[in-house]
TrEMBL record:
This is tRNA (Adenine-N(1))-methyltransferase. Pfam families: TrmK. Residues 186-229 form a coiled coil. Keywords: Coiled coil. Transmembrane segments: none annotated. It comes from Sporosarcina quadrami. PANTHER family: TRNA (ADENINE(22)-N(1))-METHYLTRANSFERASE. It comes from the Bacteria.
Length: 232
């Protein structure tokens, strides 16, 4: 991949960014997303934040090679610490990490979100962690997308300020995704529930300790939730 052509998952993230946004891309890796958005005139300027030295240096080289150093500033920082109050950031993107890590980044950097109106996340796993963070911090889910690329399934969750409540099923699979119920969505949750059933079956041979019993009950509940959403 290069910064002239994004992967399918980053293209989907880019589509949720509003025209004229001021962007902070956290965990920017090689700064592909900011380079793409600035090159296409979709964002006014961008911060590319990266905590690891190697990708930080690579991002700086990519930005310079593209001639975008005046509009994209690459910063070596941990999470949202890449954002300064003077940046006037209104949109944050965080892609390519686990849901719990994204949620912890948002939690740790809550003060840096003061001017932010939209958060666009692309968790690789455990997307429910982001929905839980949103509910607990007065953000709401306003957009979701699920897609498959290179035999991996990715979710995108878009948040804006506001209050919302979601039931256990909505939190697990996504309040918008469960309504759209795309073929990728159905495939993902069929796979997940089959794996949960496999684990539950294996636990039948593991005795009846409290931990095992609790785990079996948890898996059974999840399997029933997925059966419910896939059968309607």
């Amino acid at each position: 991949m290069n910064h002239d052509k994004l992967s399918a998952r980053l293209t989907a993230v880019a589509e949720f960014v509003e025209q004229g946004a001021i962007l902070a891309d956290i965990g920017s890796d090689h700064a592909y997303l900011p380079c793409y958005l600035v090159s296409n005139g979709k964002v006014k300027k961008a911060i590319a934040g990266e905590v690891v030295k190697g990708p930080y240096e690579s991002a700086k080289r990519n930005v310079a090679k593209k001639g975008l150093s005046e509009k994209i500033e690459v910063r070596l920082a941990n999470g949202l610490a890449a954002i300064k109050s003077t940046d006037e950031i209104d949109t944050v993107t965080i892609a390519g990490m686990g849901g719990p890590l994204i949620a912890s980044i948002l939690d740790a950097g809550s003060t840096e979100l003061a001017s932010v109106k939209k958060i666009i996340t692309q968790p690789n796993i455990h997307a429910s962690s982001i929905r839980e963070w949103a509910v607990n911090n007065e953000w709401k889910v306003v957009g979701e997308q699920i897609l498959e690329e290179d035999n991996k399934i990715y979710e995108i969750i878009v948040l804006e300020r506001g209050t919302a409540t979601y039931d256990e099923l909505q939190m697990l699979v996504g309040p918008i995704l469960m309504v759209d119920k795309s073929t990728v969505f159905i495939d993902k949750w069929n796979r997940e529930s089959s794996e949960w059933q496999r684990i539950a079956d294996s636990l039948e041979q593991a005795g009846n300790s409290e931990d095992v019993t609790n785990k079996k009950q948890e898996l059974k509940k999840k399997i029933e939730l997925i059966r419910r959403v896939l059968s309607t």
